[in-house]
Structure prediction request, 112 residues.
Amino acid sequence: MTATAPTGAATIQGVGLLSNGPLVLSNVQVDRNIGTATGLTGFAHGGGMWNGQLFAGPDSPLILENTHVGGNVLTASSGLTVQGGGIFTPGFPVTLDHSVVAHNRPDDCFGC
Prediction:
């Protein structure tokens, strides 16, 4: 996924998966997603998955059962915020049950 805004804000939220409410993933692979945001301002959040509230709604707990989140990559223009290469979940709990979140860039999980 690429977001380009040469004169404005480039934003990425959830390259592989975007969740806006409670979610249970069982036996899933969220692997090798790549996101790049290029702009004057903006951000890149959640290379593998973004978990939170886009609009008003319920809390967004995330449960991963026998799930792998790996090899996801986020990049952005200099000065833009890049967080959650694997998972971006600001303020919402993540439960890992026999699951692995590893080898994501720039980090494995923001908010975990």
